[in-house]
Amino acid sequence: MQKTAVLLILFLVMPAMHCYAEPSDIKTHKNIAPDLYEVLHRLEDKTSEIRTLKTEFVQEKELAVFKEKIILKGMIFLQKPELFAWHIIEPLSYSMVIKGDILSQWDENTKKIQKISLSKNPAFQVAISQMKDWFSGKYSSMTENYNIIILKRKPVSLKFIPKKNTIVSNVIASVTVIFRDDERYIHQIYIKEKSSNSTLLTFVNTQLNTPLEAVAWEVQPRVR
Amino acid sequence: MLDDHFFRLYGSIQRSKWLVAVLAAAIIIAAIIGLKSISFDNNIELMLPGNDEVYRSIRFLRESNLSDKVILSLGLKSSEYTTKDLIAAVKKLKESLGPPLVTDVISGIPENNVVEEMLELLKYAPQLIDEQNLLLIEKQINPSGVKESLQNNYRQFLTPASTLIIPFIRSDPLGIYSNILRSLQKIYSSVGYEVTVENGHFISKDRKHAMLILDTPVNLTDGFGSRKLISYLNNRLNILPDFISADIIAGHLHTVSNEDVIKRDIRLTLIIASAAFILLFIVVFRDLGAIIIFLIPLASVIVSINISNLILNKLSYFIVGMGAVIAGIAVDYGIHVYTAVRTGDSRQEAVNSIARPLIIGALTTISVFASFFFSSVQGYHQLAFFSILSIILCLACSLFILPHFIIKGKYNRLKHTVKKYGEHVNQRSLQKPKTQDKFIVLCWAIFMIIALILSKQISFNSEISQFDGSEIEIIKAEQKFNSTWVNKSNPAVFVVQGNTLEEALKVNEKIYEEAKTVVGEDNFSSLAAIWPSKQTRKTNVDRWKEFWKQGKEEKLRELISTYGSDYNFSEDAFSPFFDNLYACTIIEDEPERIKIYKRLKERFVIDKPDHLQVMSFFPDEDKYVNAMSTISSHYPGTFLVSRKVLSHVLSKSVSSEIILLSGIAAIMIPLLTCLLLKDIKMTALALIPVITGITAVMGTIPIFGLSLNAPSLIAAMVVLGLCIDYGIFMVYTCRHNLKTGTRMAVSLSAITTLIGAGVLLFANHPVLFSIGATIVSGVLFGYIASIIVIPSFYRLWIENT
User: Fold this and answer.
1) Using H for helix, E for strand and C for coil, what is the string for B55-87?
2) Would you state the pLDDT for residue B748?
3) What pLDDT is stored for residue B117 in this prediction?
4) What is the interface size between A and B, counted as CB pairs within 8 Å?
5) Residue B704: phi, psi to the nearest 5?
6) What's the CATH architecture for B68-110+196-255+472-485?
7) Which positions in chain A touch B111 (Cβ < 8 Å)?
């Protein structure tokens, strides 16, 4: 309840995180530095070819609430336009699957499947859509809420700093995205929070445009 | 005896007619000058039935300034541009708007500190958490409760959306503030708009529209100010780039548009009416002196406005608007006198022969308006006074002044026309009944049956919106706005009043507790859910302190420490909770520094000069409104405002008013006619045009796709007054075989009325059109009945017996 309430209030009061990416935004925007424009254009062109994504991930969370760094391991599946799955295998079995408007989640503690309508829970919609934007390479829509800096050109590394007066600026200091050498997908995402918390998400064994099994979209216990 | 007085007065005026004329002219000039100093009242309450609930609701809606806001909805025209471009345009526009016409512009809510603000509000938990919630907390402070909470927190930290909620979980590990958050969420989602905030700006769900809310000192009913405001806004909107569209959503736009539509209608109808009257003069009167006929009612109305204002103190705009209708009725007296004098051989005899039916006709018309005094609508009392005065003045001028200024020429075209007309028609009343008469009566009966059948489809419409004649572009812009922004219909409002905020909040709390049971917590959006009275907050704080200081704080710390290690939680993982446990335990009147509270107060509290009103909102549904009405009856000083109920009560009140007035008129007209004519059969005949006219109105209105409304019912009263005049004149002519050109006079009266009201059929404004349709259909069929049906009935019924 608390989580839902917080997210919903955040959405209702001030969400700046948007859920609808503008098509070809950066191609027409004149306020972006030419070199950044060129990089974003190139990355978006490459990621736009992605139809399906299957990847393992390792998420390292360094949070003040934990004594030690938490390492999560799991799988992410993405099938454009509307299927998304986030399965955590370690240290706790947790699954979240989005099919269109419905978000289903399951965890090993409650062992219950909870279904949420995204259209009726705009906060979830906002949070999830932004996550999908990161994973599906819609960087164009990020330019409205983030100032983007090119940290490195080979492999490309971009730093996204939330703009003032955005909801993200409340909690996030910066997001650094490091791409693979072939620039077809992300290698790592590093989120630095204002409170000194940080999260590093590393993608392993990423497979692009491979056929995905139906089991990917089921919320069920995963093998550890 | 009466005749003697009449002739004495008539003779006196004849002897000093120029002195009377100069005196009359002086009075009229003074009245015209006097018009400038009259203050007209545009208060709608004057035209409402005497119902406290209606008065209060209308006053609340007007004074709450909920409708005085102006909204600008900006939209992206092209997909080539983004929300960022839209926001840039909004910023530019916002900067360009300012006093004196725009006093404040709200384009969104700053977002940068919102998480901190929410956390700040949660620090007030000791003041906001009541005994019931404290008991729930107590149930959680045990190994299994704490373990479950920690497990839940751990799981939430692992979800993709965890970043945003970490600060909240650290401040509330047991989720004990969830009720506060839920109440806040409920309040925000009850706003009724589908709005998100992006970069501090109100943005629609499709992210292609932005909204600005403007405060203006210009009152909705101020036509001049509204025009200035709209012109100013249109001028400012010109600075927007080409790819941005803009819609103004404001009541002021309706004021300006209605004024424009009425002005256009008046221009058009004046042109048509002038052309028709000129044609009438050329064909029938051919006498410049006849202009006096039309000047008399105009002068009477102007003088009446002055006298009414002197006696009644303030006049409604609506009453003055009815002046034209009154003039339309009153002009008939002049026409009758003029026709009689021009066609008769002696001026005095002519006036004498028509004076009685003229006075009887005027008295019956006066009786119709007199019935308005029985209404509970104050405005109708004004209307009755003003109308009766105008009719009396006009009748007096027509009988005593007009005849002396009518020039009887050598060749009298009017007399010639009447004679020719009489040869064919006028003398028929003296003839024996014919088969033709039976046919006429049969046709009339068939017509009445058809009209009665058609009248079954008639409905009554009391919606105030039907009087809105705003241009279609405004309505379309509002529909577009609704589809983009609005997701709920207007809620009903429960209002608690108090001399101080604390006084109002105390009652508000009690109402909230009761409303939760009858309306449901989720349906009742109240400030009490978030912010109770100072007294309650103090009690909560005392209870809170006592609760935690009984060793529960230590116990919870211990339990979190023990079971937190299972989930790798650090020692200070939930320190924000313990740090703020007694943070806001000093009671202040209002937490002014918390912007969330300030925004809530703006939505729920109305500051009046001498008191405060605290509003709560709930769905405007009958079951809820009824339940809340019962609660309100137990709390003096509280009331509720429901647009649905208001519409229903208005409809009921107006309907019962109309039934009452129609009933009075239905009794008064035959009674008075009978008393004055002293003959039941003649009375029955005189009523034929009235019955025909009213039945025709009832049958015609559905054909026009219209429904009955207050203006059309008043117009129907006018039809009553006119038709009874026609009836009285015709039965009088039939009985006394008058040769004063009655048929011509009745025809001219009807024609002038039909021209005056008929042009309203070209009007775009729904009210004018509705008045036009009612008068035209009623007078047309009433006139036909008087001129054709009465003589036939007379021959078949009276002469035969």
Assistant:
1) HHHHHHHHHCCCCCCEEEEEEECCCCCCHHHHH
2) 82
3) 80
4) 177
5) -75, -5
6) 2-Layer Sandwich (3.30)
7) 13-16, 165-167, 169-170
Please work out, in degrees rounded to the nearest 5, the angle formed at the alpha carbon of residue A32 by the alpha carbons of A31 and A33: 120
CB atoms within 10 A of CB B192: 15
Token pair of B713 as six digits: 């019912």
- Give the total residue count for chain A: 224
Cross-chain residue pair B161–A18, CB shorter than 8 Å: no
Q: Minimal Cα distance from B207: which residue of A? A: A20
Q: Where are the beta strands (DSSP E) in A32-69?
A: 52-62
Query: Using a CB-CB distance cutoff of 8 angstroms, which residues of chain B are in contact with residue A107?
Result: 155
| Cβ neighbours of A124 (radius 10 Å) | 24
Question: Which chain B residue is nearest to residue A69, measuring alpha carbons?
Answer: B568
pLDDT at B2 over 60: no
Confidence check on the interface: ipTM exceeds 0.85, yes or no: no
**What type of residue sits at position B551?**
G
**pLDDT digits over A10-19, tens only?**
444 433 333 3
> Where in chain B is CATH 3.30.70.1430?
68-110+196-255+472-485
Q: Kindly report the nearest CA distance between residue B644 and chain A, in angstroms.
A: 27
CB contact under 8 A, B111 and A166: yes
One of 3.20.20.190, 3.10.490.10, 1.10.15.40, 2.50.20.10 is the CATH number of A2-210, namely 2.50.20.10
Using CB atoms, pick whichever of A29, A72, A145 lies closest to residue B158: A72
From the list B786, B785, B793, the residue with the least C-alpha distance to B451 is B785
Question: Where are chain A's structural domains?
Answer: 2-210
Give the residue among B548, B534, B540 at the shortest CA–CA distance from B581.
B548
Using the predicted structure, report yes or no on whether residue A129 has a pLDDT greater than 70. no
Q: Which residue has the higher pLDDT, B433 or A98?
A: A98
Give B570's contacts in chain A (Cβ within 8 Å). Answer: 64-67
Domain B2-45+256-467+646-799: CATH superfamily, name plus number? Multidrug efflux transporter AcrB transmembrane domain (1.20.1640.10)
Q: Hey, is the C-beta of B157 within 8 angstroms of any chain A C-beta?
A: yes
Whether chain A has a CB inside 8 Å of the CB on B178: the answer is yes
Burial B160-185 (b: 16+ CB within 10 A, else e): bbbbbbbbbbbbbbbbbbbbbbbbbb
pLDDT value at position B426? 45
A62 conformational bin, left if phi > 0, alpha if psi -120 to 50, beta if neither: beta
Interface check B192 vs A, CB under 8 A? no
Closest CA to B46 of B425, B322, B334, B251: B322
In chain B, % of residues over pLDDT 90: 22
| Residue contact B197–A14, C-beta within 8 A | yes
Tell the burial category of B614 from Cβ atoms under 10 Å away from its Cβ (0-12, 13-18, 19+). buried
Query: How close, in Å, is residue B79 to chain A by CA atoms?
Result: 9
Distance from CA of A156 to the nearest CA of B (A): 24
* Cα dihedral B772, B774, B779, B785 sign: positive
Minimum distance, in Å, between the CA of residue B58 and any CA atom of chain A: 31
Are B701 and B774 spatial neighbours (Cβ–Cβ below 8 Å)?
A: yes
- The mean pLDDT of chain B is 82
Q: What is the largest CA-CA distance in chain A?
A: 51
Q: Could you give the CA distance from residue A1 to residue A23 in angstroms, rounded to a whole number?
A: 35
A57 confidence band (pLDDT: 50, 70, 90) = very high
Min distance B487 CA to chain A CA atoms (Å): 13
Q: Which residues of A touch B571 (CB under 8 A)?
A: 67
Q: Do B163 and A199 touch (CB under 8 A)?
A: yes
All CATH 1.20.1640.10 domain ranges in chain B, comma separated = 2-45+256-467+646-799
Contact A66 B570 (CB under 8 A): yes
